[in-house]
Amino acid sequence: MPQVPLQPPARLVRTVSAWEGEPGQSWAHGLPERARRVVERWELTPERVLEPGGNISMVVLVLQADGTPATLKLGLVTPETAQEPAALARWDGRGAVRLLRTEPDEGALLLERLQGEVSLRSLPESKAMLEATGVLRRLWVHPGDDHPFRGVPGYTGGLVDTLSARAAQPWAAELRPLADEALRVRADLVASEPERVLLHGDYHHGNVLAAGPSPSRGPDRADVPGGGSGERPPWLAIDPKPLVGERAYDLAWLVRDRLDTLVASPGPAAATRRRLHRLADDLEVDRERLRGWSLFRAVEAGLWSLAVGDRDAGELLLEFATWL
């Protein structure tokens, strides 16, 4: 097999440089050597680098020493991504991609091969939502004793100062009432957290992929936390930013999924509320708590997008927040 260049996709280099500055740019430039070392240690044969790949990770299709297909993910280690291996190990393939091997300090994960180009975005919205909620039911398990995951109150507390500082900038003057409302709602939510389960943290249609063409059995079985019997589902989650907290937090990104479709629909505010109510009722989540987390996460993400220069995404997210 011809040697495959282990070069990061151009989009990855641009994105991580814009988001993380000089440290991100330096990390991206070191990817080819890091990938070469991991490939040699794990006795992998690269097939191709996925384009455009992830926003903060390089994804390489590989063959293991025995010829089994797998996926090598080399990600930037951040506070949000550091516990991805621990979450995947906890799920052990139940509703999520199976972790085969990891070197956490390198940000290197060897994963089972999924159909990387087929996500829930390929399905009609109603079917995608049905599948998405089914996967979430499998992911929401007890985090385990002495787990390493951050809690939603602590994580979102770390966003409060940054959100406030961005809202205080001259360019955000008109957005301050919306930011104040998001901060007030978040304070009310964390004052009365109703449950603590393992959350995906970045759950949307693009982070749920079709399983491989011939998935192995299980592990939806009794010895997996919350497991039952039967085959693995046809859709599996990837790229968690794991947290421990209430389910409403995880549902917030589904409320705003396919935002371009929502904004183009007749009466987008009413359509958004209908979606929120349907998701809350289907998964037995309090509507007001889901509305609150959807508002906070959209405002925080919208201000972040504006701050890093993504004006289109920022304005759309903040418009969505007003619909809530």
Task: Name some characteristics of this structure.
324 residues, Phosphorylase Kinase, domain 1, five-stranded antiparallel beta sheet, Aminoglycoside 3'-phosphotransferase, Chain: A, domain 2, 46% helix, NH2Glyco/OHUrea_AB-resist_kin, single chain, transferase, three-stranded antiparallel beta sheet, kinase, alpha+beta, globular, Kinase
Mind explaining what this structure looks like?
This protein is of the alpha+beta class and 324 residues long. It folds into 2 domains: 10-113, Phosphorylase Kinase, domain 1 (2-Layer Sandwich), CATH 3.30.200.20; 118-323, Aminoglycoside 3'-phosphotransferase, Chain: A, domain 2 (Alpha-Beta Complex). It has helices at residues 10-20, 22-29, 31-41, 84-91, 125-139, 152-167, 176-190, 247-255, 259-264, 268-282, 287-307, 311-323; strands at 45-49, 57-63, 69-75, 99-103, 108-112, 115-119, 197-199, 208-210, 235-237, 243-245. The protein has a 5-stranded antiparallel sheet, with helices on both faces. Strands 6-8-9 form a 3-stranded antiparallel sheet, covered by helices on one side. It has a two-stranded antiparallel ribbon with strand order 7-10. Helix 8 (247-255) packs antiparallel against helix 10 (268-282). It starts with 9 loop residues before the first helix and ends with a helix. InterPro entries: Kinase-like_dom_sf, NH2Glyco/OHUrea_AB-resist_kin. It holds the Pfam family APH_6_hur. Keywords: Kinase, Transferase. One of its GO terms (molecular function) is phosphotransferase activity, alcohol group as acceptor.
